[in-house]
Amino acid sequence: VTVHLVGAGPGDPGLLTRRGAELLATADVVVHDRLVDPAVLALASPRARLIDVGKPAGRGACAGHASQARINALLVAEARHGATVVRLKGGDPFLFGRGGEEALALEQAGVAYEVVPGVSSAFAVPAAAGVPVTHRGLARSVSVLSGHDLAGSGALLEHLSAGEGTIVVLMSGATHRRLAERLVAAGRRPSTPVLVVERGTTPEQRSWRGTIEQLAAGDAASFASPALIVVGEVASLALASYEQRALAGWRVVVTRAEHQARTLVTALGALGARPVELPVISLAPPLDGGAALAAAAARLAAYDWVVFTSTNAVERFLPLLRDARSFGAARVAAIGPGTAAALGERGVLADLVPPRFVAEALLEVFPAATGRSSGAPTVLLPRAAEARQVLPQGLRRLGYSVDVVEAYRTVRAVPAPGALEALENADAVTFTSSSTVRSFVELAGRSRLPPVVASIGPVTSATAAEAGLSVTVEAETSTIAGLVEALALYARRAGRPGARAAGAALGARSRNGPGADCAGADCAGDPLSRRTTARTPQQPPGSLRP
Length: 546
Ligand code: SAH
Known about the structure:
There is one protein chain. This protein is α/β, with parallel strands linked by helices. Helix content is 31%, strand content 19%. The protein contains 18 helices and 21 strands. It has helices at 18-26, 38-41, 65-80, 99-108, 121-128, 154-162, 176-185, 212-216, 262-270, 291-298, 311-317, 337-345, 359-365, 390-397, 434-444, 458-466, 480-494, 498-512; strands spanning 2-7, 29-32, 49-52, 85-89, 112-116, 142-146, 166-170, 193-198, 206-211, 227-231, 251-254, 274-277, 281-284, 305-308, 331-334, 378-384, 401-412, 428-431, 452-455, 473-474, 531-532. The protein has a six-stranded mixed sheet, with helices on both faces. The protein has a five-stranded mixed sheet with strand order 6-7-10-8-9. The relative contact order is 0.14. Bound molecules: S-adenosyl-L-homocysteine (SAH). S-adenosyl-L-homocysteine binds at residues 10-11, 35, 89-92, 95-97, 120-122, 125, 170-172, 197, 199-202, 225-228, 517, 519, 521-522.
């Protein structure tokens, strides 16, 4: 039995270490700080119990030892119960994270533990805002301080200020003015560049650039926890920043079935968006339990063609075969590159993929049937129960005998309690099929539609129009990548949906009050809120929590 003290990184789930991700995926219990981004928590095993030991919103005071003692006791108790415990801490566990204290407590209790270092916000957040903490000719050293210690560490700050090295101040909440005064008193020029970054490496990252003088004047006062301050000549650099990503700040709803959402979620995240997973459909077995599909699989080699119109169909059908030889001489068509890739993964190379990824385009390139002695050539079409008639009708017109076999059904999903509320501050919604459109309207109605509607292609757009939704962007190429690209192009023109985001963040701040910058890491807060949270990966930390 081991407790794993894991650094969660600064926010971006891509910056979690591989070891950290591995442990999260297999943990029984995850004890985490409020600071840990929901996108990182979402990587925890679905059966893991999540325990939030962050300070409750509204508690400004940094409590320290009492609650830290209770966290220590909790770790020991869970470990003794035989659970695999991940203690997940923002950034690196040993940098202003009290990870050392927890390790000592475990050692004293005779509980085995492992430390998994993390990417610290101290270096990653400046980098994500375009500032290298050291840079030839500008800074040859960097110091990391805690804003809470400013009162006590005057001498230390003076010592550091005297040089030219970069100073990174964590937990900098209510200290802007005092910090600025100290820095100047110790000899730094009032015109020294300063960078303030809030929620660095996340889709909500915001930053401010100015000088010590402007910091003193309160120009960055609206920046709140978690935020850090960088002081020094390097802060004048502005290299590539997370904030420049095409979808930075966009909250984008993904309506695809849960098991299919991953690629879209990842692609949106890579462009800086905050994906909001709201699966409105799920897949169910065919009404006959798959009997017809199994029968079709058994006589597969008798067909001239097999046409796959979705990865779902591939995933349902291929496991019924002994191996790829079961296709015999049958040729294989795939409606698009995603479907073709799913076939490829199973050793089947599609013979035909149309230039546009809709049924109509497949019909345009499908060879006309050439007669054979034993009657019309045959096509097997394993697909969703409720699919359009375009393809079977068109193939019959081309002279084929078509067997449409139900491979799965698309049914409306039951959203998790409260999940629909995430729509209220979403900026865009993505529809990847007609069934996602129809189920969305059934579940959420039209009134909760986010301002921007992105559709994967003409068929989905037509369904949206029929349902009374006006489509803002349509993918030029009907693939997940095409959809994300279209949305990114639109976002480039429309700009960051900033006003709403800033408003929401301000709401959360006013609840926390000044000085609430403990972020649950160094200052665990009081009382210990031992709460097993529901999975709401769409919720950013610090906002929207009652
Ligand atoms: N162990 C953590 C730091 C814990 S102290 C680490 O290595 O990163 C908590 C402070 O870290 C916050 O008050 C804030 O100053 C800083 N911080 C953490 N994550 C941040 C983020 N995403 N953006 C800006 N500052 C962050």
